[in-house]
Amino acid sequence: MNPVLTSIGLLFCSNVFMTFAWYAHLKELNGKPWLIAALVSWGIALFEYLLQVPANRVGYTVMSVGQLKILQEVITLSVFVPFSVFYLKEPLKQDYLWAGLCLVGAVYFMFRSKLN
What b/e readout covers 27-59, taking b as 16+ CB neighbours within 10 angstroms? Predict the structure, then answer.
């Protein structure tokens, strides 16, 4: 399978776990001590790392570390925005659009050598 597509798929799944590990406790464990929230988050984050490490290893065969990082940030925003709107019931803000456009610029600059 294409290493770029494999890396993107694994990073997407990894980011779903990461987003839940970092933010779901704000809704689900709000009344619990922070230590409980941290332990639950660490348990969820284990699955994130089980996907993220191979994603970066596969992606690094065809991309630079900078390209992998920018790719991960784009995926993070694409997972975080729907999570915050639909799961945490946060309002959809125009700032997400501006942040996304900044990331489009970052993608261009990190991958422009591959475009030529």
Answer: eebeeeeeeebeebbeebbebbeebbeebbebb
Written as six digits, the tokens of 43 are 């348990």
Are the CB atoms for 48 and 14 separated by under 8 Å? yes
Q: Which two tokens stand for residue 100?
A: 């996304």
Task: Kindly report whether the global pTM for this prediction surpasses the value 0.85.
Answer: yes
Residue 80 half-sphere exposure toward CB, CA atoms < 13 A:
16
Give Cα separations from 75 to 17, 40, 49 (angstroms). 12, 23, 15
Name 18's Cβ contacts closer than 8 Å, sequence gap at least 6.
45, 48, 52, 76, 79
- Summarised one tens digit per residue, pLDDT across range 5-31 is 999 999 999 999 999 999 999 999 999
Question: Reduced to 3 states, what is the DSSP secondary structure of residue 30?
Answer: coil
